[in-house]
Structures are given as C-alpha cells and as structure tokens.
Amino acid sequence: MNEFIYEMEFKVRDYECDIQGIVNNANYQHYLEHTRHEFLKQNNVSFSELHSRGVDAVVSHVEIQYKNSLRPDDIFVSKLNVVKHGAKYVFNQAIFRKNDNALCIRAKIETVILINGKLQKGFEIFDNLIK
C-alpha cells in the first residue's frame, strides 16, 4: 500500500458492536466511507454539487481484509490514499487501533465516475486528488 495521504480519528461506539463485543463487520464500511467523504470535503469536492451537474462517483467494488477486531471505546485511525487504474479511482484504506497501532482492516474501494449515467475514463476533479 502506498503512503497514506489522509487520516482521521474515530472512537468505537458501543452500539456498533455485535453480541461478541466486537465491531460488526458492516460498520467498518461506514468508517471507510466517512473517511473518504471527509477527505473529499477537505479537498473541496461536494457530492451534492457534482450530482447537480450530472456527475456521480459510485463504488464499483469493495475488498476488505479483517485483521484485528475493534471493541467499544477503542480509538482508531482510518487512513487512505487514492490511485487511478484505467477508469477506476482506487481508495486504498486501512484502520489502525491507536493504543497499539494494530492493523484492524485493510480495504480497497474502487470507484468510477458517471456523467449523465455514462462511464468516464477520467475526471479532472478526481485526478487532482492523486498525489
């Protein structure tokens, strides 16, 4: 995974955990998505503004490897970078538990850009996110 270009800190809320006392697997996708959205907002990319212009960034594929579980009140850091592969913008993301820096998950989220419903091979606003 390339060097991370963005990170944000979270704290696990008890209702995000299942009966086993660990974060339910689906909640990791919420953490990842929130991280991507905050990264985009920091870079002045507004989904609602883009959508009003007929531009939609949509997730086309998700891969998640679960490594270590998070538990209630754990503080963790969600990190990402973004690369381009053909028409896809790939967000490589990882979540690390803060107290021991344990890797909790590694994820690859592929997104594509649709303009008026048609797949685009590139989009300048997203191209500018790649460092």
Q: SSE layout and pairings?
A:
Elements: E1 6-11, H1 25-42, H2 47-52, E2 55-66, E3 75-85, E4 88-97, E5 103-115, E6 118-120, H3 124-127
Antiparallel strand pairs: 1-3, 2-5, 3-4, 4-5, 5-6
Percent of residues in β-strands: 35-45%
Radius of gyration: 16 Å
The overall strand count is: 6
Q: Fraction of residues in helices?
A: 10-25%
Tally of separate helices:
3
Q: Gap between N and C termini, in Å? A: 14 Å
| Secondary-structure-derived class | alpha+beta
Q: Would you identify the regions where 5 or more consecutive residues have pLDDT less than 50? A: none
Principal-axis shape equals elongated
Order of helices and strands: EHHEEEEEH
> What's the story with the biggest beta sheet?
6 strands, antiparallel
Average pLDDT across residues?
A: 95
In short:
The chain has three helices and six strands.
Structure commentary:
This protein is of the alpha+beta class. Helix content is 21%, strand content 42%. The protein has helices at residues 25-42, 47-52, 124-127, and strands at 6-11, 55-66, 75-85, 88-97, 103-115, 118-120. Strands 1, 2, 3, 4, 5 and 6 form a 6-stranded antiparallel sheet that branches. The chain is elongated and about 45 Å long. The protein starts with 5 loop residues before the first strand and ends with a helix. The model has no long low-confidence stretch (mean pLDDT 95).
